[in-house]
Write a structure and sequence with these properties.
Layout: E1 4-18, E2 22-29, E3 33-39, E4 61-68, E5 74-84
Length: 92
C-alpha cells in the first residue's frame, strides 16, 4: 500500500537529532493525532538549508503536507511552513 499525501496542521512536541543532518520530530497533528516524522537534511551547515531546523522547535505550529501510512511508525513530511508566528508569548 502506497503512502498518501494529506494536508494537516500540527504542533511540534519534541525534536531529536538523528545522524549528522536529520531530525526525528514528534508532532500532534489535527488529522492523525500524535505522529513521528523523519526529516532529512535540515541540520546541514550549508547556506541553502540554514535555519530549516528552527521550524521544528517545540511549540511551533505548522501547516504540513505529510505522507501517511497507518502501518508505519515513522512517516515523512513533504512540505512545511509556519501556520502561526508567536512574536510575544509573554507580555509584560
Amino acid at each position: 500500500m502506497a503512502d498518501k499525501l494529506h494536508k494537516t496542521k500540527g504542533i511540534v512536541l519534541r525534536s531529536v537529532k538523528y545522524g549528522e543532518t536529520s531530525l526525528i520530530v514528534s508532532i500532534y497533528t489535527e488529522v492523525f493525532g500524535l505522529q513521528s516524522y523523519l526529516i532529512n537534511g535540515v541540520r546541514t551547515a550549508g547556506r541553502k538549508n540554514s535555519g530549516r531546523s528552527m521550524f521544528f522547535q517545540p511549540a511551533a505550529i505548522l501547516d504540513l503536507v505529510v505522507y501517511y501510512n497507518e502501518f508505519k511508525q515513522l512517516n515523512r513530511i513533504n512540505e512545511y511552513k509556519w501556520a502561526r508566528l508567536n512574536e510575544n508569548i509573554l507580555q509584560m
